[in-house]
Amino acid sequence: MIVAGALAIVSLITLMAPRAWGALNAHRQVPVGLYQFSGLAQRSTVYDVNGLQIGAFQRENAQRTVISSVPTEVIAAILAVEDDVFMSHDGVNLRAIARALLSNSQGGSRQGASTITQQVAKNEFLGGSISGGRTKILQARYATMLEKILTKEEILERYVNTVYFGNNAYGLAAAAETYYGKSVSELNLIEGAFIAGLVQAPSTYDPFSTNGYKSYSVRKRYKIVLGRLVDEGLITPDEATAACADWQEPKRKVDDPATCRLPTKAAPVSNEESTVVDTRQDANRSYFSEFVKDYLRTRGVEMGLGATEEEVMARLYRGGLKIYTTLDKNAQLAAERAAAEQMPDNATGITAAVLSLDTQTGAIRAMVGGEGFVPNTNEVNLALRRRQTGSSVKMFVLAAALEAGILPDDVIKGLGA
User: Fold this and answer.
1) What is the DSSP string of 254-281?
2) CATH architecture, domain defined by 2-30+61-260
């Protein structure tokens, strides 16, 4: 027993040493302060050259929840499932980190160690980050900073408004509506606990899935959640047994558009900036709006939108930016119409792209990336994607050659420069 314990301690120290060193040097990787941290997420709006709204960046299906509207027993359930020492830690739970490292290193079930504050930091500032050691360090760094400027109640309110519960539901209000068809204030202890249990892996524990294994995973997770409630003294073992026996998985409402959910349409611009709204399907996302997002992702730091790429993307989705572009909405609609009209009736497998530029300034006036932008299905922008030009460009090359004084009988080696 002593030898086994010693080996466990040694393995734990070995695993934690690199991470500890990284944590000690975290100040070299993150900015000193948080950027303009005030208010909950506000959507950023994209405008064309004439000030007309052409798109927006925001979390979809997000509904604001005031923490005072959440039943006390639901809050207790969330804390029991996600962070039972939330009220006492300073943003990071070192004991949970050590426990997770030891369990994961011994091949046990994968365990997380992120506190509610760390999850808020991730959702607010690191939403587009790739998981990894650096991201974990950033989470811990931001979490300790958040604990110094926000109260526990404020942090918890941000958590219930930003965490993802699956099925396009961001925040507790959206989750309550999605899974139980009711408001947050109507949730009971068991319902709140089930929703909180989704956070760990929303896709794996999706109760709407028809996958048999996922259904098994949902029930297994539910039993674990009930066990947490028992451990925290919120229910008795007998009540947990009864709740498990009587429980029915939430069912998707027949009229729920989540079976084919589309991004929210753009809302009219206020302050008389524009009375024209693009009513086309999926107005908030398009080939051009994705181009704008990628441009800000790569150039945002030098533009002063954040100290890191993660901060830039977080500010884009929560900072209420007003983004003015060179696109001309009328030219855009004309380009889309022209591309559609030129396609043959039997255009299966054929598509077209259009990029209209101002030849004097290089400003983009219209961009059609393909047959239609569909999130997660058809996002490839053929107007920007590198590809072979084909024979259609040869006439332009020959015309340019003749203008440059090259004669028809000249022989030119096509070896490039």
Assistant:
1) TT-GGGG--PPPPPPPTTTT-S----ST
2) Orthogonal Bundle (1.10)
